[in-house]
Write a structure and sequence with these properties.
By secondary structure, the protein is α+β, with helices and mostly antiparallel strands. 38% of the residues lie in helices and 22% in strands.
């Protein structure tokens, strides 16, 4: 992705505003500073407190009561100058990789902790996965469509990964977009690609090919007379 898409995806508040603009549901949120009573009234507890511009769940806390809010906000401020307080969506943890203009099979994550935190992401054995996720065809199409809309709304290109929660009522909520998703042994994009019949070496080739095609197109645009 280019600098604009990368910046938009990194800023969780701007991302959420753009998701709403294109009809992609996202959990309701408030920006700090805010009192615990207002969080309880408008979002309810538990709530997620996180830096607005961080990745890998760094600085994130699940807050279960108003008296826990201040400490969680202080922790998040250690990593950023803006802090998001977001309604915690109980339910299933799902993610959709995007490759080119294609949504890959949905991955379901079963973390050992309450949320898919840093340890669960990067420590082998701290999460289990099901690919493709056990969803109906309609549910799979819906979440893949939402992922593509989120990807495009943030002006991402090439590849990305869009994270969701599925509520017990079956509603999908987009949490965030990852403009540079991981490509490690425990990463999610390669799992979705493998489920689509794309082995890891081919995935790397396709990412490079998409980037070269995009670079060529932009170069051709610059070469055209105005």
């Amino acid at each position: 992705s280019g600098p604009l898409g990368s910046a938009l995806a990194m800023d969780k508040e701007l991302s959420k505003r753009l998701f709403e603009d294109v009809g992609v549901p996202t959990p309701p949120w408030l920006m700090a500073p805010v009192h615990g009573a207002e969080v309880e009234h408008r979002l309810g507890f538990p709530a997620i407190v996180k830096p607005s511009k961080q990745g890998s769940t760094v600085g994130i806390t699940v807050v279960h009561a108003p008296q826990e809010l201040d400490a969680a906000v202080r922790l998040a401020y250690e990593f950023d100058d803006e802090v998001v307080i977001e309604k915690f969506i109980r339910g299933r943890e799902l993610t959709v990789g995007i490759l080119g203009e294609r949504a890959l099979p949905v991955v379901e994550i079963f973390p050992k902790h309450e949320i898919y935190d840093y340890d669960c992401k990067y420590t082998k054995g701290m999460s289990e996965y099901r690919v493709p996720a056990l969803l109906s065809e309609e549910e799979s199409r819906t979440i893949q469509d939402l992922a593509l809309r989120a990807h495009r709304a943030l002006k991402l290109r090439g590849f990305s990964r869009i994270d969701f929660r599925m509520s017990p009522e079956g509603r999908f909520y987009c949490l965030e977009a990852n403009s540079l998703p991981g490509l490690t042994q425990t990463s999610l994009l390669p799992k979705g690609a493998a489920a689509a019949g794309i082995p890891f070496p081919e995935l790397c080739e396709q990412i490079v090919r998409v980037a070269l095609d995009a670079h060529g197109a932009h170069g051709a645009d610059r070469g055209r007379p105005g």
